[in-house]
Structures
1.
Amino acid sequence: MTMKTRKKRNRNSELNSMGDALDLILAGHNAVITPDFIMAKNDFLHADIGHLNPKDLNTFDDEFIETLVRCNAKESTYEVGNSAVLMQLSQNYKQQRNELCDYQAKFDKYIIENDVAASKELGNFDPYIKKVVIRNEAEMNVLYDYISLYRKAKGKRAAVQWRVENPKLMNNTNKTVISAYEKARFTLLRLDENLPHGGIRTTNLFTQKKNLLMDIALNGSNMEGCFFICSLLDMGEYMMTSGGGIPIDATSNAGKSTLTLLKKYFKKLQTAKSEITVNTIKCAREVYGFCLRGGALENMHIK
């Protein structure tokens, strides 16, 4: 399985330097079950950092999940067009992705300053060795998203506060994507159909709208029929994600358990008037924490 990463964050040398700064460690696992790579038993050396009990993988609501699988979108926000149109959108997507990556890379210092506090909220901080437990770049991207989009700084979304404190970082070239980034919505997508040039027909389960998602790496992973938990940016003619994301296979117990966590927040997020509310923060914290502690992204490779 492959997933995208930020342009500035996918080189081994840079990952190593970030690893030193964040005290990243590799957490060895004794056993895994299902394709989700969720732990089947506790590791006594890291008893407080997640490694979910087997019972955590059986707390799902089949009826709720079936409604997600069968949901019919009420409206469409796009027209796919022909291959030439998709190619043009793909080129625009690549440019916007690079602009966002460059912008995000400038805030690594802030991420480092807040990684411990955030990981304690998510439950992937190991109190015995006093380190943040991140196994790979896929997990790092989820942690990055949580810190930047679902924690506040001086009363504002952290991503917004960064821009307020560094207004010169926004320019005419990156203004569109940065504005969309600051308004990103926590989202559950159903990946309905792969299209040429990195396009994916998706259904946003919160808005019940069909969207065109441009995501070359996710398209290449061929995950049609699965779900994708992410932060969604509205780029006008298409959607893109903020960089982190969690693929969910609704046929596995672990996948069903993850989707079921959304149930108590579902209607509240459907009717949310702003991008970040108390319920959005609680939902993102619970879902991201569940997946990071359980190792759902442990064997995901980014290229």
2.
Amino acid sequence: MKKLKICFISTNPTFLGGATMFLYNLIKYSKKIKHNAVEFTWIYQGKENKKYKKDKINFIEIKDTKFYLLNEFLFNFKILEFLKKNSYDIINSHTEGFWINFYKKKNNQKIIHTFHGNRYYFNKNHYGRLNLMQKGLLLILLGTNWIVDRPSKNVKKLICVSEKVKRQIEKLYGKKENIVVIRTGVDLKNFKQRNKNKIKEKLNFDKKKIYGLYVGRGGYWTKGLDRVIKISEGIYNLNKNYRLIVIGADLKKVGHLLNKKFIIYIEQGKRKILPYYYNSSDISFCMSRYEGGAPTLVTSEAMASGCLVVCSKDSEQEIIKDEENGLIVEEFGKKSAEKILEILNDKKKKEKIIKDSMKTVKKLSLEKWGRKYLEVLLK
């Protein structure tokens, strides 16, 4: 039987961020239900031009340039050249979509574009912190973002990972009939509630201490690591038994933020160990200034693992309702620290929030999400 050939255009597979894990989880689920009936190819930007195969996935690395804005266009045209010479039944873009405007679609070929966020709003988010010259350059970048991310008429379906992203796309480009929202799924067999004290012992953590958790490899300002540290400092000042676990942050960029007594820094833990860090933590933070996912993968993994999830209001984690299945904060100091400790000390209220949080995230299981996504992809 002829295999169905699916090509993904996405981020570097070695960078274990949300978009990367999104694809790994989708491929994992697809293989589970389709067995060997699908052949996957994954195209991404990297340091060199190369082709290789790993875990039955064909990887195509396309060399990028050192100039960011030039990359925006060059990578698109390199994709275009590659796709002209290679044939796929389905092409699903997760980053660049500008090439689609110039691509001559082959017979019975389907093109789908997935928005994990919106770069126009992601970059606009930085405007308030820049000087006058930087603001001028940002305006050029925003114009480039608007052009590059504009949905093409050649796209069969536009998939957004949240209602927020759908609203942003339609605000920029008008209403779309071919747009659909599919929230990102989470592997509930891997991320689940476990005995906290046993896991703390496994990781050599103190059973008597309270642990907060920040997981993120992206830009520390956008991801709000500075906010997490400010709130954590407030918690530590009120309770010296508190510790903050920071996983994945780039030490070269954030070393100046991590010089605190209460911080435990882990450069980049293995993915298979990550569930245990959630299990050992009492609190998981999402203090982002902008996010596409609602929830983000980190938030849903924390919810599934039984953490008290604390989110910033501007991260817009749409499935989180304040003091119902998580906490939402607007202030990043003593006031929020007191609010968090108050919930942690109220065992009955804390357990109800966590219980409702886990109930919410069960609707986003890998199986339910994968089924919805593949239905759009393969229909």
3.
Amino acid sequence: MSKRLARNPKSYENEARQFAEAAKMVKAIGFRNVTARKSGAVKIIDAEAGDGGRVSFWVKLGWSTAEYAAIQFGLFAGPEGSKRSNAAFIQFVEERIAHIKARGATHVLLFHRDTDAIALPLDKMGKAYAQQMRKFPALARNTKSPTMWFFDPRPTAKPELTAIVRRYAIPLELLARRADVRTDDPEARSRMAEVELRVSQVAFRNRVGKRCRWRCVVTGSAIGTILDAAHLPGRDWRKHNKGSDGILLRVDIHRLIDNKLAWIVDGRFHLSDAAKKEYAQYEGSAVARG
């Protein structure tokens, strides 16, 4: 079955919308003279960095949910992919990348709706996929289509799977300034560490939010934009990031606890004398369980 027959009109509408959003994001980050074009089914965003260098992104829109995202490189023609060797999958990806490079692309932009987009030099993309194939062949094969994962914070996921891709990533903000930035550039590595932290905390918030049913465990507030995921006492944010390692708190309640104006003791919320007047209604209240 062809791709067009297998998909519905709504999916094409969403794809077009995401492509437009990707172009807006590239411009907002600081690239100049941003233009979006399609070469057949290939989506490319051409842009100019601050140093005058040209950057052309092959835009790959991840099939995803809020919890994970991966890209596919196309379907094999002829015999099913399940009958082909791992080496055949890797070769297919390398040929696909060469085809895209011939159309002027210098980088790939992996675009996921719930995280910052990830940029990789096109030359590194094949290496990343080959490493995923060697370490996680079942996931990289995905039956008929070579598949590369770049975001998957689910508790059942393997962190090293997506770390392989991020190892080659370049922060878009840095690339917007310097078109020649490399993945081994000290500044790029430092900035990617910041991106990793931000992504891990997004994942942590999603896990905690689901466990707490997206309500503050003290106030019951369900306004998502004012809810923080807070680590429980004794949990280290560097290594304890399961849903059970945190609770969801309204921003002001979180600040009270951080500033030692409130505490959660034995499943109840307690206030300091300084905070009791304004927050008296919550003194001694039971903390909801996820």
